[in-house]
UniProtKB/TrEMBL annotation:
GO molecular function: DNA-binding transcription factor activity; transcription cis-regulatory region binding
Protein name, entry field: Catabolite control protein
Gene3D superfamilies named in the record: 3.40.50.2300, lambda repressor-like DNA-binding domains
UniProt-listed InterPro entries: HTH_LacI, Lambda_DNA-bd_dom_sf, Peripla_BP/Lac1_sug-bd_dom, Peripla_BP_I
SMART domains linked: HTH_LACI
Pfam families: LacI, Peripla_BP_1
Length: 338
């Protein structure tokens, strides 16, 4: 079956059928839906390879995530793929595993696939080697979860969120608060959250900074238990992500600590799994699906206009506090989600 037959059935021109498949933004939603419906009725399948040769467009975007293990990125990718599908795009998602060399390989593979644009989460925007190949890109791109004034980004203000959180804890009487994070050198998100913690410590007389850095997640339970045994005066653990907070919950409970009476534990991300725990995890909640949707929306406009995004296009989305049950104070001064 040919596009001529589709045009006849849909009562539109052949050019309109072509635009419906190749440039959906140039036809009305109603017309495109009618064309696609008639194509479906006669079993027509658009040849993506042939279209790419004609238009130099593949209608595919590339997505690089740092891990497939954190549910944050599942929620985020759902936002991207849904938005992309509605706009007539497919997605190619690859994992860099927080390795700089693998980031380069992933980018190369995405570019070899002739994607029309890129949504990237890089390990650390402060690493010149890591960002040299990003700066050289000749197709539109946007960074997600990274927050750097030199690049177009979609994220939340993690630093400010941690500052507000720790300030609320100190106002409630906590004077021994430890920040728990993964290997700081690996993730600029963890670095920014730790800096927010330090900002609050600096403005809280008598509060001393305490950092528990866990390079390998497999050893987290033993490290956390050892730390709690050696620092029994600690009353709150502020974690750089929810997965670490969940491990802190388990380690503390195995030591017989009552949560939150003996120890408050707060995560960061607000993943759905945290709401299923007992006690329910308290966490700073980020709008992960919306980060994906907004990232695609910015990229889509850039691809339509054949322009690059700039730092002026950066979008910082609001975060909220998921009260949960693992923290013994109500964060009345923070954006709240029950």
């Amino acid at each position: 079956m040919s596009i001529e037959k589709i045009a006849e059935l849909a009562q539109v021109s052949i050019a309109t059928v072509s635009r419906a498949f190749n440039s959906p933004n140039k036809v009305s939603d109603k017309t495109r839906e009618r064309v696609l419906q008639k194509a479906k009725e006669i079993g027509y399948i658009s040849n993506a390879s042939a279209r790419a040769l004609r238009t130099n467009k593949t209608n595919v975007i590339g997505v690089m995530v740092p891990t497939m293990l954190n549910p944050v990125y599942a929620e985020y990718c759902e936002g991207i793929t849904q938005s992309a599908f509605e706009a007539g795009y497919s997605t190619m998602i690859l994992n860099s595993a927080y390795h700089l060399e693998q980031e380069k390989i992933v980018l190369q593979k995405l570019l070899e696939a002739n994607v029309d644009g890129l949504i990237l989460t890089v390990s650390n925007t402060q690493n010149p080697q890591a960002m040299s190949f990003v700066k050289a890109l000749r197709i539109p791109y946007v960074l997600a979860y990274n927050n750097d004034p030199h690049y177009p980004c979609v994220s939340v203000d993690s630093r400010q969120a941690l500052t507000e959180l720790v300030a609320s804890l100190t106002n409630a009487g906590h004077q021994h608060i430890t920040m728990v994070c993964g290997e700081l050198a690996v993730s600029d998100r963890a670095q920014q959250r730790y800096q927010g913690y330090l900002d609050a410590v600096q403005h809280s007389p008598g509060l001393q900074p305490n950092l528990l850095e866990i390079p390998f997640i497999e050893s987290a339970n033993a490290q956390i238990q050892q730390y709690l045994l050696e620092h029994s005066h600690i009353t709150a653990l502020v974690c750089s992500n929810d997965l670490l907070a969940i491990r802190c919950l388990r380690a503390a409970q195995q030591l017989g600590r009552k949560i939150p009476d003996d120890l408050s534990i707060i995560g960061f991300d607000g993943i759905a799994l945290g709401r299923e725990l007992c006690p329910m995890l308290s966490s700073i909640e980020t709008p992960n699906k919306q980060i994906g949707q907004t990232s695609f929306s910015l990229l889509y406009q850039a691809m339509l206009n054949d322009t690059a995004l700039s730092p002026l296009d950066t979008c910082l989305l609001p975060y909220s506090f998921q009260q949960g049950e693992s923290c013994n104070i109500a964060f009345i001064n923070l954006p709240h989600r029950s």
